From TrEMBL, chains A, B:
Gene3D superfamilies: Pseudouridine synthase I, catalytic domain, C-terminal subdomain, Pseudouridine synthase I, catalytic domain, N-terminal subdomain. Its EC number is 5.4.99.12. It comes from Holtiella tumoricola. This is tRNA pseudouridine synthase A. Keywords: Isomerase, tRNA processing. Formation of pseudouridine at positions 38, 39 and 40 in the anticodon stem and loop of transfer RNAs. It holds the Pfam family PseudoU_synth_1. It catalyses: uridine(38/39/40) in tRNA = pseudouridine(38/39/40) in tRNA. GO terms for molecular function: RNA binding; tRNA pseudouridine(38-40) synthase activity. CDD domains: PseudoU_synth_EcTruA. The keyword Phosphoprotein does not apply.
Length: 246, 246
């Protein structure tokens, strides 16, 4: 068995997300990749990502791996993928990996970016890649609120995950709010994120930025352990998986 | 009569260009604006731009003006336009202008940017906004070639314009090649450009960058005064009108 490590970027606008849906595999990024690789290697290929991304979410850097029974040169694989993948999926690197490398189990931390366009008119070049909130946001209050999310917490209030057996305890290393050409981006770096966690944290930070909630409310929300206490789920098209670290 | 100066940005992907086409006015940026403004002011409005942009060409900053017989507050006009214009057209400023201001006649110089994505895989977030040339370009040679285009020249070889009465003499102040996240952008600053001039200059500079033509060939092309001597017309989707100066 051979193992390959692959890094890729994708515009998630047209997809149901990373993970194969049994009825519509070709509407997922995983399904597109498995389809093209399966044809090249002439065997069923399973592509394992660092984690799934939801419908409409983009990736500037997703990492995955896949096993094959025959060996092909990475350069040959790259040329084939460039020819047959759609233009909204780009492979940024493809390398031979050790047999033990597993894109999900070996992932240490991840960085996400959530893009918010605060212009009065939405920037026409960011419409698909940023959430349009044409308001002046109180950035210092958002930073204060974000500081309460740092460290290890039970993020039960910040997920729509229903599975009660799975732990909702996660660790956030940093949250950085940076200016962009048309607004701000909020970068989140952590050891892993629950379903919808980044989007619910963003929706809640926006409530603070808009003056609908005080920064200290974050403490009450964390303690309450109920999804109903946090802000709305920000839409998927503003979210980018930025980096996966090993 | 009242006169308004308007600055706007647009993603030209879905349009036949700036200028109204008699059979399909709503497939042009001018037509979209005139339609919405006409409804607001309840009179026919003509919007005069600094110059037309071709089908598929974008603008980060286009400038235009329009006259009305009744007066409305710029803020009211902006709110109405935001409500009724599609998301690929954004008004970045709208101000009262002196009666004599004319967006085309008063324009002093323009800046265009042509974006080239040189990654092996096209960047998924730039597919609509950059020309994909997955090759390593010889930038110093491109800069040498560009230097021969500076100053006042007869650019007859660099236009597809057929009108023999119109002068083809133009002045280029500067051509700057800058790196971007996925390749390069070539900025052109001049007192005005002929039809397809920026795209033909770009196609010719690319021939030099790819090693198909020597930088000195530019001199022969200028002297020859024939479109057949220059390189191909680079596609419209990589071109942005960046700035209009008064």
């Amino acid at each position: 068995m051979y193992n390959y490590k692959i890094s890729l970027a994708y515009d998630g606008s047209k997809y149901l997300g990373w993970q194969v849906q049994s009825n519509q595999p070709l509407k997922t990024i995983q399904g597109k990749l498995e389809n093209v690789l399966g044809k090249l290697f002439d065997e069923p290929i399973q592509v394992i990502a660092s984690g799934r991304t939801d419908a409409g979410v983009h990736a500037r850097m997703q990492v995955a791996n896949f096993h094959t029974t025959t060996y092909k040169n990475p350069e040959e694989i790259l040329h084939y993928l460039r020819q047959y993948l759609p233009q909204d999926i780009a492979i940024t690197s493809l390398k031979d990996a050790s047999e033990r490398f597993h894109a999900r189990y070996n992932c240490l931390t991840k960085r996400y970016g959530y893009y918010i366009d605060t212009n009065f008119f939405a920037d026409p070049f960011s419409v698909r890649f940023a959430y349009h909130v044409p308001e002046s946001l109180h950035l210092e209050k958002m930073e204060q609120a974000a500081s309460h999310l740092l460290g290890t917490h039970d993020f039960k209030s910040f997920t729509s995950m229903k599975n009660k057996k799975k732990s909702t305890i996660k660790h956030i290393h940093s949250i950085d709010i940076q200016p962009t050409s048309c607004g701000i981006v909020i970068y989140y770096h952590g050891n892993g994120f629950l379903q919808h966690q980044v989007r619910i944290m963003t929706g809640t930070l926006l409530e603070v930025g808009l003056g609908h909630m005080e920064p200290e409310a974050i403490l009450t929300i964390l303690e309450g352990k109920s999804r109903a206490l946090a802000g709305p789920t920000a839409p998927s098209h503003g979210l980018f998986l930025e980096e996966v670290l090993y």
